[in-house]
Amino acid sequence: MFRVTLNNHTRLSEIADSKANILLSVNTIIISIALTVLIPKLDSPKNIHLMIPTLVLIIFSVTTIVFAILSTRPKVTQGTFTREEVKQKKVNILFFGNFFRMPLQEYEWAINELMDDKEGLYNALTKDLYYLGLVLNKKYSLLRIAYGIFMIGLIISVLVFVFSFYQANLGTKF
């Protein structure tokens, strides 16, 4: 059960990271095109109507990128624990962020302590899955926000471009 659930959590995390990467790539391309194609055209007075739509597009793209990055940004942890914390079961030594700065001998001691306590071992595995679930929830919440911003930004940008073109080419009767 623990192995299957951990694999599911890992796959969901990979999917979330892949979705964030897609958002990052698409919005980076949008910004690159805007900067190389649209911005140079803004020098001409006849293209001034492109200023606001271009800014709207870039602002929404940058905001989407920020939320996509936040969804994949790792949480920095201390990376150490004490023997007392292990004995009192206050630290989950199965999570790498709790031991990555520990000397090998201390980590081996802690693992042996955990292995000698079957109930503590299952509790640690349960806590590990629980906290992985919390991390997944945060990732997917931020991704939902990023996709929402992206979708709303595209819609608003297209509407603003259409409105601007209409004003510039057909007059101000909108």
Describe the model.
With 174 residues, this protein is mainly α. It has one domain (2-170). 76% of the residues lie in helices and 0% in strands. The protein contains five helices and no strands. The longest helix is centred in the C-terminal third of the chain and has 53 residues, at 118-170. The radius of gyration is 25 Å and the shape is elongated.
Features:
mainly alpha
Q: Any chance you could write out the topology, listing elements then pairs?
A:
Layout: H1 2-41, H2 51-72, H3 83-87, H4 104-116, H5 118-170
Helix pairs in contact: 1-2, 1-5, 2-5
Largest sheet: none
Strand content: under 5%
How would you classify the helix and strand content by structural class? mainly alpha
CA radius of gyration: 25 Å
User: Termini, distance in Å?
Assistant: 62 Å
Instruction: Compute the average pLDDT.
Output: 90
Number of domains: 1
Helical fraction: over 70%
- What is the tally of beta strands? 0
Tell me the number of helical segments per DSSP (H or I, 4 or more residues long). 5
User: Can you tell me the overall shape?
Assistant: elongated
Order of helices and strands: HHHHH
- Uncertain segments of ≥5 residues (pLDDT<50)? none
